[in-house]
Input
Amino acid sequence: MIQNFPIFIVIIPLITAFLIPLIGWWRKKYCCYISIFSTLLIFIISIFLLSSVIDSDTIRYHIGGWEPPYGIEYVVDHLSVFMIILIAFISLIITLYSKKSVEKELSDNIVAFYTLFMLLITGLLGIVITGDLFNLYVFLEISSLAAYALIAVGEKRDALVASFNYLIIGTIAACFILLGIGFLYMVTGSLNMADLSTILSETYTLYPKVVLAAMIFFIVGLSIKIALFPLHVWLPNAYTHAPSVVSAIIAALMTKVGAYVMIRIMFTVFGIYFVTDVIPVTDILSVVAAFAIIIGSINAIAQTDIKRMLAYSSVSQIGYIVLGIGLANQTGLLGGVLHILNHAFMKGCLFLAVGAIIYKTGIRNIYDFQGLGRKMPYTMAAFSIAAISMVGIPPLCGFFSKLFLALGAIESGDWKWIFALVILLSSLLNAGYFLRVLEKAWFGKSYHEDMDEVPKSMLIPTLILAAGCILLGIFVFIPLPFIGSIANILI
Amino acid sequence: MPLEWILDKYNYWISAALMLIGFYAMISKKNFIKKIIGMTIFQTAIILFYVSIADVEGGAAPILVPGKYVYVNPLPHVLMLTAIVVGVSTTAVALSLIMKIYKKYGSIEEDKILEAR
Output
């Protein structure tokens, strides 16, 4: 039983995705419960996987009993299990939250929403667990296709165009990644990541141009998928016009999984020596990331729509994660991976809180937030905690990832200390756009006198994520050794 | 030498040319259907590229036939079967989005939709 857990992680949401239309045909309201059951099951299994990875080392599962490099292999190592736990937990929280919100916002498409939602989770979990490059591409496309459809599921006209543009750009990215895989297969004859990493150093001496081309296709394709600064055009519209729950899941998980793939490709497949010494991909990425951090924050200040503001804030936060990857030392990568965790909690909480506000009042413009703190105190409290954490005030979790990123920047020497200044500047900009909202909500003149909170099923998940922001800050020393060992294994 | 260099690898040149045509159509055409046509050309060009990788000089189709000992590599073909499925699903999602867009806006030209917003 326990040795089959890696495949269950992918199979359970996939089967659920096909069960939901059948059950939804009979009774629509059961769709939500079966999704909750399925995500809970995944979460429990992922905890077993975590304990098993900590006790004994990496778990390798050969699908159909075919030995790698011929068969597809699922690998659960430290980084994978970290991502699996994160995806399972956030999707469990969001499924709990989704019931009321989906009933109101997507009343015609409840069944379609849950089916696509489960397919999205299948894709995301598949990406982080697979050890085979082509399998990774397939899961990437499963999750992307589910995401395109999820953005459009509300059938609002802006959302349809945003989804279509995302589809075009996302498909270009997927084609680049597929070409990259093709180039690697051409010169190595292998698709298994562990196998590739041993073959590639030898292959590079024989066919340097092909390997470089593959590298560049991967980096450009993944940069589009994670919306790194100059390639981020699809993101603001997609996040703004998607239904609230969908914005939350995509903002919290989609881009993080893209960042995971980037770490995998750069450090596991190509190896640290290749990306720093042979071709300075990491330096280029960190400079681009610095621009992403600053320009994303400046754009966020200019927005009046709260969801669009959070979307641009995501562009800048992606910059932090890529900066952590680009620094290519242990402290920096630790900061980057820690920021994947923290940002999933913070941005998830922010989008859930905004979803709750839209559910109750329909307010999207920041200037209408006047006195909202008195009307919806708990929701706004959760929003405030996540926002302050995003700025990086010490006891909250956002501070620690920024601290490690800054330390990593200083540690890497030469001219890279300048990134520490970028992080500081961006924190000030973050404070600029978040405190503006908080000031209006808590100290603005109140139009709404009575307290009028959202239903508990929406409030509690939001508060859990807000509590997560505090706990991950105060008890940062608990996940830190584990994340340290991730960085240690990769570099 | 350059002529031979081009002629010897003509399949790669054709697939690269098709990729660029598809890529150009995807990013520059204003009509949504034309964008999708570009996308399909791009994906098909990649399929051609993979099938070219698989080719072995004088190889037979990878089926067990008596008297044949050289086969082309079947793995890229199998990969491309999956890629075709992915491509078809992408096209299906895109076309259904275009249908919805046409219902809401009454047009599938990017300029008119930007005006209507």
User: Anything to note?
Assistant: The beta strands of chain A are 59-62, 73-76.
